[in-house]
Amino acid sequence: MAKDHGPHIKNDEQYEKLRDQGVSKEKAARIANDPNSGKKGGKAEKYEERTKEELYQKAKEVGIDGRSDMSKEELINALRNH
User: Is 15 among the domain residues?
Assistant: First the structure.
């Protein structure tokens, strides 16, 4: 059974698996709290299928600096590597 990480982590099991894989606490929490993220991968739209504005809003949500000057491809890269 997964440790309870409190109310700020919605999927404790997924969070722990991501942390065991070396994912940062911030990124693991973001993935584990995404309602579109499942146990074997999310059902979220692929970044390439999203509009630049949607990518910009996601980048804003996760705190990526310099996002307003980024192209769609740069936003995708920044989101994947944040």
Answer: no
Separation CA 37–CA 11 (nearest Å): 9
Q: Tokens 């944040």 map to which residue?
A: 82
Whether 14 is covered by a domain: the verdict is no
Residue corresponding to tokens 């705190």: 63
* Distance between CA atoms of residues 53 and 62, nearest Å: 14
**Separation CA 82–CA 77 (nearest Å):** 8
Chain segment 19-36, per-residue pLDDT in tens: 899 988 888 888 888 776
pTM of the model: 0.56
- Is residue 77 in some structural domain? yes
Given a contact cutoff of 8 angstroms between Cβ atoms, the answer to whether 37 and 14 are in contact is yes
Q: Residue holding tokens 């606490």?
A: 25
